[in-house]
Amino acid sequence: MDRNSSPPTPRRWRKVAYGGMQPGFDDNHTDESFLEHMVMNANVVKRDMIKVMQDSVSISQYLCIVALVVLVWIYTLRSTLDENSLLLLDVSLLASGFLILLLTEEMLSLNLLFHYILNISFFMTGLYVLAPIYQTLTRSISSDSIWAVTISLLILHLFLHDYSGSTIKAPGALQNPTLTSCISLNASVVASVFIASRLPSRLHVFAIMLFSLLVFLFAPLVTYCVKKYSFRLHLLFSFTLMVATLAFVYMLHRLLFVLFLGLLVFVNVVCPYWLIQIQEYKFEINGPWDEAKLCFDITD
Fold first, then answer.
1. 3-class SS at 283?
2. Over 60: is that where the pLDDT of 172 sits?
3. For 17, 102, 184, 261, which has the most beta carbons within 10 A of its beta carbon?
4. Residue 40, SS3?
């Protein structure tokens, strides 16, 4: 062996994805350049307290809508609201909803409006035909059981509801309703049927079912259009709705007023504060080992 010969050049490690094991290196070997491109908390969004509180208004707004529906149910079961008052309330809600859509939705044409009116006409006809079935559906079940199931369904409805948009989509919309939002809507419909089955007359059942379904189906669409049209108008409408709901709850029961006020404060103040506080504990590591992500929408 020649003593003057230079020692063999050591093999250099190469970063390859599918090259197999490299001689002289372990399968999980990494060199000093492995962590050069590591980025910490690259996608963490710094949230503003006021912005988060404004975003939480949509949740409080829908809580108030559901609370108003429950109040109407209670006053109807107590015979405080008769069927004529309920029908007048239904017509007022339907007219005001279409008026708001006409004023806020730019893409709403006369053909689309006629399409909505025709569908609602068929919907109301079918609802009136099925009213006698709803009236006798739970005759053999006690009222306590009905209220327990109804409250459970409303909690499920609130938990799965899509607070960022509306379950009702315009014809030709690209995004379809999610599974959770459909389950939420079905839970509210079943809860409405249970309440309607405790009413004495067919017209009562039709009026309360129409009211409930108008609110659960079209109220999210109307509030979404208002929010998209003007965020300030959305805030004004939401705070007005909160004040009105609190006033009606106070007239019903003071303890319920305190509980509902605490719930609104919890949603609008405590939860945003918690979200801001836990941001400092967020720890995210990104590097070349992450999977590639598309930077464009594949539906385009």
1. coil
2. no
3. 184
4. strand
